[in-house]
Amino acid sequence: MDECNDAFSRRDKKLILESTIAFIKKYSTSFNLDEPLSKKKRFVDSIFDQLSDPSDVSESENFYIYLQALRIMTRNKADLDELFTEDKVNNMLHLARLVGKEEAFMTENSKDFDTKVVVEAQKCICNLLFNSTRIQSYCCKNSCIDGIMLRLKMYKDPKLPVEVKYFDMRMLFILTGLCEHLRGKIYEEYHGFIYLMEVIDLILKETQEPDQRPSKKSQRKRKSKNMPDDQKDKNKQVKDNELDDLSVDLCCEVLKVLFNLSHWIQKNNLDDGEEAHFIRLVGILHDLLLTDTKSKEKRYNLLNHTVNLFNNIPSKCFEELLVPIPEIGILDNPKYEYEDKNVEAIAVLVEFLEKKLDIKYDKQVTLYENLSPILSCMCEMAKAHSIIRKYLRLQILPPLKDVMQRPEEGTTLRNKLVKLMTSPNTSIKDLVAEFLFILCKENVGRLIKYTGFGNSSGLIANRGLLAAGRSQGNYSSDSDDSDTEEYLSMVDKINPVTGCYEESRSNVMETLTEEQKEHEAMELVNLIDKLNALGVVQPCRLDESGRPQPIKHILEMRKEEEEANNKESDSD
């Protein structure tokens, strides 16, 4: 930095550029410049003097180099407010072409619109917004929001690079994430929710031809090993029209902004206009779920952000994920047809859940953070729509055939989820149990049948269902339960605690005398009393709501039992 400041003091253009390039190479991977504030301030001020030099207007390459140096300075939170004043922020917004109403002319007609300079300025602003609350307040008042929203309306212009769009959305995501008051303003004054939805729709239209787009009116062609050559040519064309990495990145940023805006809307108290917007959004997300990407990793990221957004969508809008078969004709792949609906979008979510379950997580916190979005949105979908619930149950809790092994043992979706019902992470344990309970129409007997009482006892106790058969849920009256022949033939030998078949065991008590039985009973009483004294176990009784309540002494249960017997005898 000393060399740069020395070069700036000499006012030698060539020396300034050389020293700046050397600075960039030296600190390109550094996130903490341990330099005095005075030196850093002199350096930043000198850089902005170069950016404001009229003689350098045509030297866009120089501007790019200077902005790279500034980007290094914006990484560290320390001293940002002193280094980057409001006028400097406005200067960078001008370089990023975020200048309000003038933006249209500067993008379409300006010959000095250099993408590298614009993107580098955007990167600097992103760092500043993320690291400084004062600069966030600047950008809530200056031309930043106006410029982004105005350029958002111009995204159909093929001359506007995808990189510029991407960093526009990144800035908007940071602002709407950290400045909550902006969400309502962007939604209501700028109609940002509508324009952002159209950006995703535009990406899908630009990437795929209308007859290949996986929408409600035309479904994606699937690959087959024995397909004719002409069909292979069509599939090759579809593959060529997959979303590229840049388009996926842009989609993800737009989805993140939509998440922030939709979080501001009260989804349980919508007016007609807001409901129409959400219905339109679900239709677009349906198409996005069925769109392929060139990279599997990008596909995973895209599904992640789509699922996150689903959690902010009103439950009544999930019906848009189901496409009536009569509207589109017979499907090429019959496995996606269920009760006269195309459920391919739901099948994609099921596959995504399975991928999430197969990941090896290092920490329980990470496990919850990764699984909670997909499980939460599936809970909402299953509650809201009976066809979605029935299809999910068919995929996750199919009719029981294998009753020889425990529900938590195996590689099926049911096995993986039941295993999580005894996870040490109580949050993920409760969420998985809630999801499976909903798939069972909140029927305790059915839940025990598929998971075993030992795995489901926590939920049953917490929900106060130890003395009741069914929770109060709004489900269709028709039963979709079906017992297989394999299950019915073994039902008498299935242990309800473990949820699997167990061989009948001989009764060891039969070989004991009455004295031995009494001795064993007293030993058991003493052991229980010892555990109770140590606080390991505590006697409980069921209250009126069906939840276990601790009691101070076991004799309380005997007293209640005697009172109950007396009442029964009086009534007789």
Task: Name a few traits of the molecule.
single chain; 572 residues; mainly alpha; Leucine-rich Repeat Variant; three-stranded antiparallel beta sheet; two-stranded antiparallel ribbon; 28 helices; 7 strands; 61% helix
Describe this structure in words.
This protein has 572 residues and is mostly helical. Among the domains are: 1-179, Alpha Horseshoe (Leucine-rich Repeat Variant); 519-571, no CATH class. It is built from 28 helices and 7 strands. Strands 1-3-2 form a 3-stranded antiparallel beta sheet. Strands 4-5 form a two-stranded antiparallel ribbon. Strands 6-7 form a two-stranded antiparallel sheet. The chain is elongated, with a radius of gyration of 32 Å. It starts with a helix and ends with a helix. Residues 210-214 and 216-239 have low confidence and may be disordered.
**Approximately what portion of the residues adopt beta-strand conformation?**
under 5%
Average pLDDT for all residues: 83
Q: Compute the number of strand runs.
A: 7
Question: Sheet bearing the most strands, described?
Answer: 3 strands, antiparallel
N- to C-terminal distance: 97 Å
Give the CATH class of the domain at 1-179. Mainly Alpha
| CATH topology call of the domain at 1-179 | Leucine-rich Repeat Variant
Portion of residues within helices: 55-70%
Using the 3D structure, state the CATH architecture of the domain at 1-179: Alpha Horseshoe
Structural class: mainly alpha
Q: Flag low-confidence runs.
A: 210-214, 216-239
User: What oligomeric state do the depicted chains represent?
Assistant: single chain
With strands numbered from the N-terminus, the spatial order across the biggest sheet is 1-3-2
